[in-house]
Write a structure and sequence with these properties.
- The protein is mainly α and about 240 residues long.
- Helices cover about 60% and strands about 0% of the residues.
- Helix 9 crosses helix 11.
- The chain is elongated, with a radius of gyration of 19 Å.
Length: about 240
Amino acid sequence: MDAHQLPADEKTQLTHELLNQEYRRRILDPRRSHMHELISTMLSHRTNHKDEEKAYYTMMERFGDWEGIMNADVDELVDAIQTTRYPGQKAPQIQQALRIIKEERGEISIDFLEDMPVAEAMEWLTRLPGVGLKTATLVLLFNFKKPVMPVDTHVFRISQRVGLIGAKATANKAHTILLEMLPPEPEELYNFHIHMLRHGQRICTFFGPKCEQCVLNSICNYYQDVRQKGIDKAA
């Protein structure tokens, strides 16, 4: 059997091993506060990191704190986060999310998620406006070290090209599929996510992937079945 024809679970484990060798492993420590992570991840939808950060710090500078953001004029908040995509949609969602947190918890804090079971924490977060599976899993893994698998565009693209998930799998379904095939330890899940993200930015890009430089090309369906056979003339 050729390597790219391995079962998906074996291929997923091999992908994890190869990327661990290719990229520096990282220790799972929160990169920012819990609320910062939540709101910045909401801002990051369809937006690059530089513009997301500019929006976040502009918002904090103008309104001071979460209470100020929650009570701000919505048009002024839209203006503050205009470097993101869809600011007119994100501004009211952020305010509504802050109100829900304040009303339900008595303060604008999500520290309580630390002690919640994973399924309950996921359900609570995804009830907030503007918070889907990707945002919820990022917050729970990055900040609370919960065993969940965030799937962003890079993780999803590489997983489909290599053959870790099927061509018809949705991004939401991929969260569960990949989680079931990976080691359950949060630090392993974190490194898989971070390495896939970096690989998607550097090598397995959306346009013109650098397949010849890729450490996964021996197990990759796209490389073996498309690129090697010259089917992908545009790449």
